[in-house]
Amino acid sequence: MTDDVQTPVVLDVDGVRVSRRGRDLLDDVSLRVRAGEHWALIGPNGAGKTTLLALCGARAHPTAGTVEVLGRRLGRVDLAELRRQIGHVDPRHRMVGDNTVREVVLTGATGSSDPVVRWSPTAEQEARADRLTASVGMEARRDSRWSVLSQGERGRALIARALLAEPALLLLDEPATGLDVAAREHLLDTVDALRTAHPEVASVTVTHHLEDLPASTTHAVLLREGRVTARGPADEVLTSELVSAAFDHPLVIDRVDGRWAARTARSARSAG
Q: Which of 187, 193, 232 is nearest to 211 (CA)?
């Protein structure tokens, strides 16, 4: 983790344990994220990524240890109010109505899944929603209904929604889930561009696949069976040795043009 004490800490997870029905989902997990950092949470199924992201998003409490989000400690703060200051991108986002892209983006102001009855956005909120919609390449689809959008278009719309409330922390929960290669690349290009446009925003991205990480990723944490096996700058953590240990499988990790890729060590030897 960075030692730059001048950069504000937006997320501080310290010695956390989360237990459910007698089983530890997380055990002695610590993570500190500063403004402008972009962390990846990597690990196999059951490693604890979803549980850790729930803590980061103020959607759960730890059994032991402390979690501070945007300077406020869980257990001492109104979670609903805190969540409104955290941007959350989840491709499994559910709505009751078949809303337009513009309506979906504007729900970022209310933190609701659907437009709130008898709530009207301000002119400033509408203008910001339109600017963000255009910034993710969805301006031409602004009035399109959710049901006719591709999965990639939905992902980009949800990024605009998450940014509407000007969050200091952006959480991306497997944002490339269900996307074909072209849609994934478009989404990751969008994420890279937004990180450049909003340099003060910190982010945490959960994924199983290194190929789904944007080139702008700065840090990474590897999880295995609820424990951290490595964390720090991305190039120091996303190595063949450390990723192989986290997944208990021999892997070769390459980085080309800023992007990571993984393949089995046996395939790498055969290709050579």
A: 187
Q: Which of 145, 166, 187 is the last residue of a domain?
A: 166
Q: pLDDT tens across 51-103, in order? A: 999 999 998 899 999 999 999 999 888 888 888 889 999 888 889 999 999 99
| Residue-level pLDDT at 1 | 41
How far apart, in whole angstroms, are the C-alpha atoms of residue 124 and residue 119? 14
- What phi and psi values does residue 39 have, to the nearest 5 degrees? -95, 145
pTM: 0.89
The Cα 208–Cα 230 span in angstroms is 16
Residues near 202 by Cβ (< 8 Å), separated by ≥ 6?
A: 10, 11, 33, 34, 35, 36, 37, 38, 39, 168, 169, 170
Whether 20 and 140 share a structural domain: no
Identify the domain containing residue 131 by its residue range: 94-166
**Rounded distance between C-alpha atoms, residue 56 and residue 13, angstroms:** 8
- Domain count across the chain: 2
Contacts of 31 (CB under 8 A, 6+ apart): 1, 11, 12, 13, 39, 52, 221, 228, 231
| Contacts of range 45-49, beta carbons closer than 8 Å, 24 or more positions apart | 45/208, 46/225, 47/223, 47/224, 47/225, 47/226, 47/246, 48/18, 48/223, 48/225, 48/226, 48/227, 49/206, 49/223
Mention every residue, 6+ apart, whose C-beta is less than 8 A from residue 79. 58, 59
Q: Do residue 171 and residue 152 come from a single domain?
A: no
Examine the domain organization and report whether 260 and 180 are in the same domain.
yes
Helix, strand, or coil here: 143? coil
How far does CA 206 lie from the centroid of its chain? Answer: 6
- Rounded Cα distance between 258 and 111, Å, is 34
Question: What are the residue ranges in the chain where pLDDT is below 70?
Answer: 1-5, 267-272
